[in-house]
């Protein structure tokens, strides 16, 4: 890593990672770049290929793994997620704060590769609210929701390994907290 800072942004499914990032990115803070992950899951309503994720087949993803395309990758549930290496390195060299929205498994890999990376973990106010959010999505089966809640419990136990915890009780407050973290990282880089 050169002049930039890698910010690993994680949290359980339904905690509001996407909502917080969407609102933060609307601020158009200079010197910040969000990496677009590759995934094998199907797009959700309103998601755009190449903007929200790069959607690929499992076969395409596995070929990318073979070609060492990813900085990190993980299987979350039944789907793969991965971060393209070359784009991240370029933005770090340019001095940007690079946001990686990745799962805990991937975050561990990143910490091994970039020990100076910073972690921010988004926390739901409670597991009950997390379950409500997952159900309101209307995109998962009951079995998927229960699996995601079991994974969430493990991830929440791991959240103390992150530098910052952002509680997403009110979206505006969570966005303000993320903005404060990123501003602090930018000031540290000067």
Q: End-to-end distance, in Å?
A: 15 Å
The rounded Rg comes to 16 Å
What's the tally of helices?
7
What's the CATH topology label?
A: Rossmann fold
- Enumerate the spans where pLDDT stays under 50 for 5 or more consecutive residues: none
Instruction: Specify the helix fraction band.
Output: 40-55%
How would you characterize the largest beta sheet? 5 strands, parallel
- CATH homologous superfamily grouping: P-loop containing nucleotide triphosphate hydrolases
Q: Per CATH, which architecture?
A: 3-Layer(aba) Sandwich
Give a description of the structure:
There is one protein chain. With 190 residues, the protein is of the alpha/beta class. The protein has one domain (5-189): Rossmann fold. Helices cover 44% and strands 22% of the residues. It contains 7 helices and 9 strands. It has helices at residues 17-25, 58-66, 85-93, 104-113, 127-137, 142-158, 171-189, and strands spanning 5-10, 32-34, 38-39, 54-55, 70-76, 79-84, 97-101, 118-123, 164-167. A 5-stranded parallel beta sheet has the order 2-7-1-8-9, with helices on both faces. Strands 4-3-6-5 form a 4-stranded mixed beta sheet. The longest helix is centred in the C-terminal third of the chain and has 19 residues, at 171-189.
Q: Top keywords for this entry?
A:
single chain, alpha/beta, 5-stranded parallel β-sheet, 4-stranded mixed β-sheet
Briefly say what this structure is:
This protein has helices at 17-25, 58-66, 85-93, 104-113, 127-137, 142-158, 171-189, and strands at 5-10, 32-34, 38-39, 54-55, 70-76, 79-84, 97-101, 118-123, 164-167.
